[in-house]
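Q: Structure tokens for this one, please.
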Amino acid sequence: MLTGIAVILLLGLFFGHLFSKMKLPGPIGMILVGIILSPHALDLIDGSILEISADLRQVALVIILTRAGLSLEADSLKRVGRPAVLMCFVPACAEMAGTILLAPALLGVSILEAAIIGSVIAAVSPAVIVPRMIRLIEEGYGREHSIPQLILAGASVDDVFVIVVFTALTSLASTGRISALSFFQIPVSIVLGIAAGVVLGSVLIMVFERFPMRDTVKVLTLVSFSFLLLELQSRLEGIVPLSGLLAIMALGFIIKQKDGELAARLSGKYNQLWTAGEVFLFVLVGATVDLKYAVAAGGAALLLVAGALIFRMLGVALSLVKTNLTRKERVFCMAAYTPKATVQAAIGAIPLGMGLACGQTALTVAVLSILITAPFGAIAVDNLYKRLLVKSDALRQTE
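A: Here is the predicted structure, written as tokens:
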């Protein structure tokens, strides 16, 4: 295992740096490393690492979502308002609707199977989006209309919504029944997740104030409680829905509101953790990709992914109707809200494992969605934000 970890870190860091030098997003190089090292290619990743790869990806998500919470400001979120709520589900619904319209003709699947495929590819990737939005916040781009906060807020709930829909649809396909309570889980999961994060964050702030400790110890404490929130979500599954990832972001957010100076210091620590977390996350996402499915997919699956992406962009545009955003800012939001990776890697193979007729097709389309949208979204954000977004005057004057 240690050799495998060394190979992942060394090659991930090298290719990430190489792609950055080529003016391409570093994570694309890391995904490429994962594809090359995966069991589907050179098979150089130790099996024991692959067995815990889902947990390692969760650790990386914990790091980046906590960092996101530590960067959010209440005033910015208040300014976002209605569009942020719409971004939580309208783009995903639009993408699923597009898939339902296109997939039967392109892939020869039924409407229900098309809906399942749509739910597999509809979620955006926090792993790709969150670090880039944090960078925009730190550099002051899009501050006037709270663009990064808008995208962060939407992306943090988008996954919850899509996964619940996916679960309901696969249940319908396997049992012929669907429960209305499944969709009631969405608001309950969101509310309870935020509440859990706020309560825990408030308690930890009091503990930190009463018992002085080094910032490193505080980070370890936060990371540990974040893992416990994910375990709580798992234990309550089927009883009470709770979004652990949303709770983790809320935990960081409440610390930011109660002690901005502490949040800034902790954010720096998490930034250092993210250096290694990013490598593991994207390399292991790449390791889930089997290129033979992508090669065998043909033009029809490619057209489906591209067409569904157009529907998603239209959904983003619809969410931003009657806002003060400029045309350039709307275009940026449409491009920034496209990357897929983590959710697709996690659920893409589930329909196949359930024995559904569309299982292989769903997995193939999930793989293609990662290969197409993760690079597209990352490159679009990295190359467009300085052109399409306005930088804060205060930060511009300090340069």
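A few notes: The radius of gyration is 20 Å. The CA atoms of residues 26 and 359 lie 31 Å apart.
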